[in-house]
Design a protein that fits this description.
By secondary structure, this protein is an alpha/beta fold. It has 9 helices and 8 strands. The chain has an 8-stranded parallel beta sheet. The longest helix has 23 residues, at about 10-35. The protein starts with 11 loop residues before the first helix and ends in a 7-residue tail after the last helix.
Length: about 260
Amino acid sequence: MSPNEGAREPDGDTRLIELSANLAAVRQRIADAVRLRPAAWGEPKLIVVTKFHPAADVLLLAGLGVRDLGENRDQEAAGKSANVAQHRECASLRWHFIGQLQTNKAKSVAGYAHAVHSVDRPGLIRALSAAITAEQQRSNRADLLCFIQLNLDPALSTPAGVEGYGAAGSRGGALPAQALELAELIEAAPGLRLAGVMAVAPLGGDAGEAFARLQQTSAAVVDRFPHATAISAGMSQDLEPALAAGATHLRVGSDVLGPRPALR
């Protein structure tokens, strides 16, 4: 599906009003939650997840001051980022890849991504490093920010996923016990920069408890790599417990953009 396929087409002014109101509501939720946590943790970064929504929405969001956008499929992300690149208001956009990433997509991601939030195995680290360093030979792109994705399923104790990281058939992510090993590999990889950790709360589980465990793993990573303080956690349904556990990056889609557009 192309970046604009299946998109609804409301009147531009109506859609702008809708996005502005939704964005204000999410920002208010964030502000309310931030007031309840230590001021030293600072202000979190809001990443608006635009998957399945058209490039026209990206342009409207840019006009509303959004600078960080998230996508979870490379084909859509590559097309959408290229579509809006010609617009002046989009010159400062930062694209965050947040979905499961195949190694054969690393070259494409290197062309547009500011950060990848789903680094969960050595093979992907090697592929991203090779792709970024090749891109840096052609352009002045910065190093790629890498978040180690962790699987917070409490029932998972034995790795059984790709390369022995994470669980077979899961939503992705390495075991928390594997975080330091992956952090070492990212730090040693040319073209990559360790940002911190990322996780999605387990389905049906206690998000607060899961994010508290993510915060503990983050502390262990920061103890070894003091600059890697980022915690990417929290979506539309659980941003408050994520912020209570120290989230620095929130990934919010439906509460800003509304439901997925109907296919035509």
